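ok here's 2'-5' RNA ligase family protein:
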Amino acid sequence: MGTVTIGVSIAVPEPHGSQLQQLRAGFGDAAAFGIPTHVTLLPPTEIDDTLLPAVEAHLTEVAAAGRPFPMRLHGTGTFRPLSPVVFVRVVEGGEDCSRLQKRIRDASGPVARDLPFPYHPHVTVAHGIEEAAMDRAFAELAGYGADWPCTGFALYEQGPDGVWRKLREFPFGGSTVPPQAGSVEQGSVFRR
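and the structure:
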């Protein structure tokens, strides 16, 4: 019996996930390959490992009540100077992400917790690196865009090596993707 560090997120699908991960590494972020490209729903949270079955049951319930929704990323933002982070903005699907993360952290569930900052869905592309590299990430990804239908989320565990590994996926209960998600052109736009 011990503790584990878990997180819940929406994976950025391929080829977008790998592309952003490569770019993150190229900006000098040493953590890039240990963190799958994602939108956080539950930040790193330490729990007793005996709680994992209860967490999985809770996430199953949250996902069963969920429905697919369109996700769209575009442009960059930053949390500097408060936090040394540059990110790609979630411009569609953010409200859905916000509702999901509230359900996941609900006081009646096994991972109830407060957040140190207000929830802001995003995809980190640089964290804790030199300011010049942060500026470069912000500028070079200003024209980046990607979209896809979000059909669920996943539970991850951080290993002793600092690498995050997927434990299980949780597909939404509804199988119908909203019409706007089907009409959004799939692919990415990247301009330098």
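+1. DSSP finds five helices and nine strands in the chain.
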